[in-house]
Structures are given as structure tokens and as C-alpha cells.
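Give me C-alpha cells for this 171-residue protein.
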Amino acid sequence: MGLDITAYRKLEPAPMQGFDADGEPLQMDAVRLYRNGDFPGRADDIDESVAYVPSDSFDFRAGSYRGYNQWREQLAELAGYPIGEYVQCGVTTESRCVGFWNGETGPFSELINFADNEGVIGASVAAKLAKDFAEYQAKADAHPDERFRDRYADWRRAFEMAADNGAVSFH
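Here you go.
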């Protein structure tokens, strides 16, 4: 198991609206997007009751859940965030993501402090993240880990696509 990502460009309501008994859109080329309520403000421009048809899409595998979380940690390090501590199941662990989990904001914060399993980031937040990825591109290019650089390129492409009236779906 792991995290898969689909980015969509130019989402329009499907001409044939409605969902089958499994919650899938009735129109074959339409998608249904899920707003993760644990992360308000990430997809205010998405209506869960609407089936959407994108003009274009892009898929990639973000990695295993553990691998994706390690990549987010590298992203936070790239952006210069300090290490913090958190306690989980009685074990103290260090992470550069702690500040975001406590409400801090900054470059990549909407991605770092988002679900690692499901939900959607809408066009307005995607535009902010696309800008973050563009601003940090030179630092990412110099990163020693090729896998990090490859995932960085995928995420940048996804958010740039979604910024064009689209969305990024985590599934």
C-alpha cells in the first residue's frame, strides 16, 4: 500500500450528474473528489456533491506511506524548518514537520500538514504550492537524493496543473 496522486486541470461539472450505489460518478470520464475535513481550507473550491470532468490529468505514485512521510521530512528540511519533538505512543520522535502540525505556516505548509492517505487540494491552495515549488527549484535541483528530486518534479507538475482550475487528489 502507498499513496497515489492524481492531478487534474480545468475541472468542469460533468454534464451527467449523479453517482451510482458505490459513489462513483454516472458519467464515465467524470471524477468525484473528497474534501478531507481534518484539513479545512485545502479545497474550498471543490464541491463533493458534484462530479467533475477534467481537461487533463497526471498520475504518479508518491511512495509507500512511510516513504512519502520521509520525503515530506526532506521537503521541510529543504525549506529550512527546525527540528521539533513530538510524543507518539510514549516514544519521543524528532521531525521538522512538528511546527506545521501545531499550526505554523510557510513554504509547503499546506502539503506537509495534510493527509498522507486521502483528500484533495483545490486550485487556490495548489497555486500557492506551485509557487513554493518554483521558488525552491534551485535548492531541489542540488539535493543529493535523486529520488527526492524526481518526486519534487512530480509534485511541482501536479500543483502547476491543479492551479489551472483543477485539484490534486490523494488516494
